[in-house]
Amino acid sequence: MLENKEEIKRILENDGVIAYVTDTVWGLGCIPTSEKAVKKIYEIKHREAQKPLILMSSEPYHLLEYVKQPLSKTTCRLIKKYFPGALTLVLEKSGKTPDYVTSGKNTVGIRVPDNEVFQEICNLIPGHVLATTSANLSHQPSAKTYEQAFENMNKYVDMVIPDYGYFAKGLESTVAGIFEDQIKIFRQGAIQLEL
Predict the structure, then answer these.
(1) Mean per-residue pLDDT for 160-168?
(2) Is the domain defined by 5-187 classed in CATH 3.40.1180.10?
């Protein structure tokens, strides 16, 4: 499905930033080990330095090394039930997660979008994980279509990848933190968590 696979891989491996579709809204992303690319995302969005990025992948197990082990029973249950899907889990991070991704916080958000284009992008790169945020300027609405993402981001990013008909649903993910097996909802989004 994806065209330009080699170019996408080259951009990401050379501190580049791309825009792409997910199951919720359009995203901006880069390889999490590239501090230069992460800084670029903050500059593009005019994003406040204290607002962290999240980590997304095509499979839950690629994200596990970025969070502290062992996972709680509640965390495992939510991953099993809602990944892939519109749930971002905020967990205590491991030493592998760079501070520049999490704004120095000791937690990191992780998510597995239910979108084939996004999953193919992840599978092009070593580690299969992107540091990501939504494809819009801070305090502006999230891009919900290719046209909106292109208009918002084409001048700033290295590539806006077509959606190939795998459209975003247009509602942000639900963000939930899990602390000592207790669930805290930070943002109510596409998924109503059954607690």
Answers:
(1) 95
(2) no
